[in-house]
Amino acid sequence: MSDHQGSSQIKVFISAIVMLVVMWMATGVLTYIIPSGTFDGTWVPSDQAGISFLKWLGAPILVLFSDSGALVIAIILFLLIIGGSIYLLQETGLVEGVILKIAKRFENNAFQLMGILILFFMALGAFVGVFEEVVPLAPLVLILSRKMGWDDLTGMGITVLACGVGFAAAVTNPFTIGVAQQLADLPVFSGAPLRALVFITVYIVLFAYLYRHAQKHSTVTGLKAKMTETEDLFDKVDSEVVSASPTTPPKRAYTFFVLVMSVMLVYVLISPFVAWMRDLSLIVIALSFLIAALGVGMMTYGAKGGVIKRFLKGAVDMSPAIILILLATSIKYVMMEGQILDSILYYVSTAMMGLHPITAIVGAFFLVMLLNFFIGSGSAKAFILMPILMPMMDMLGMGRQLGILAFQFGDGFSNILYPTNAVLLISLGLTQISYGRWLKFILPLQVMLLILSIAWLAAGYVIGYGLT
C-alpha cells in the first residue's frame, strides 16, 4: 500500500467516525427533549425521561446484546470474511484476469456494458429484493470500471447504487412490496404494471446520470473512442496485471471460481422466496467467497504458499470498519432505549391527518425516509408503518396501493444516501471511497429521484391508483 493510499484510508476512517459520533451524541440529547412513549395505533406516554447515561455511553457495545445484536455481529463477520477473501483473490491475479477479459470484450462498447450492468443490478433489487448481497461484487466491478477508463464512483454507481435504486423502484421485491401488501390486506405483488413503469423511468434517469458522469471523468472519452487510445489503455492494463501479479492462476482455478460463484448466484436468486434460505443468505455468501478464495489460493500458491496469511491480511485491513458499524447501529439503539422513536411516529402521523391528499401522501413518503435513517430493514418498517399508513389512506379516500408506493420510495432511495446504512458503509469501506466524496456525487441524483418520486405519487393519486 502506498503512502497516499494509507493517508486516504485514514481520512475516510476519521471523517466517518466524527460524523457518526456527532449523530450518536445528538440522538442521546433528543431523548431528553422529545417526550417518550409507545405508539401502536394508540399513543401511550411514558414516564421515562431520557436514556440513562450508562446506556447512552455504552451504546456501541450494548447494541451487540440487543435484539439486533446477532445481525450486527453477522455483518461484522461477513465483512471480515469478504475482505480477506477479496484480498486473497486479488493477490492470486485471478480477479485482474477475469476483469481484463471482460474489459477487452467490451473495449469498443463500454457504455453498452454499463447499460447491461445497471439493468442487471437494478433488476436484482427490484424483482428479487437483493441489496446486502451485492456488497462483495462492488470491489470487483470497481476494478472493471477502472479498466474501462471510468472512475471509482462510476463503479459504485453501477453496482451498489443501481441495486439500491432498484430496491426502491421495486416491482416484486418480497421484502418491501410483499410484506407491506400482506400487512395492507392486498393481493401480493398486485399493482405491478405501474411499478414497472416506475422501474423504467428510474433506470433511464440512473443510466443518463452515470453515462454523463463517466464521460466527464473517463480516461477514454466519447462513446466511440479512437482505436489507438483504447489499445494504449489495454496495453497499459496488461502490463499492470503482469507486474502486479507475479503468479498466474491455472485454468482450473478460473473454472473452480466460476463454479462456486454460479452456485452462490443461484442461491441468491432463489433465497428471497424460501424463508430458511433467506435467513442463511449472508452465511452462504460469506462461505462461498471463503471457499472460492481458499481454493484458488491453494491452486495458485500450493499448500505452503501463505494462503491463510494473505487471507488474514485482507481481514485485518477491513477491521477498522467494525467501529463504524457499531457507531451506526448505536444510533437506533439510543432511540429505542430512550423510547422516542414511537413518539416521533405519533407526532408526524397526527400532523398529516388534516392535509390535502397529495400533501399527505408526500408527507408519508418523507416519514418513511426519516424512519429509514434509523431502521434499515424494509420488512421491519413495514410492520411499524402499515398500521399507520393504511388507515390514513382509507380516511383520505386514496388507494392503499398508493401508500405502498410511498413506502417503497421512502424505504429504498435513501439507502444509498444515509451513513447509518450498513450496506453503504461496508461498500464504501471495501472501495475506499470517502462518505464526503460519495455524498457530493450522489446528492444531484437524489434530488432527481426525489422529484421523480413525488411526480409518480401525484400521478398515482390523479389516476386513482389502487382504487379500482
TrEMBL record:
Its main location: membrane. It is found in: Cell membrane. Keywords: Cell membrane, Membrane, Transmembrane, Transmembrane helix. The chain crosses the membrane at residues 12-34, 70-90, 110-131, 152-172, 192-211, 253-274, 280-303, 315-335, 355-375, 416-435, 447-467. It is a multi-pass membrane protein. The keyword Transmembrane applies. InterPro entries: C4_dicarb_anaerob_car-like, DASS-Related_Transporters. This is YfcC family protein. It comes from Fusibacter paucivorans.
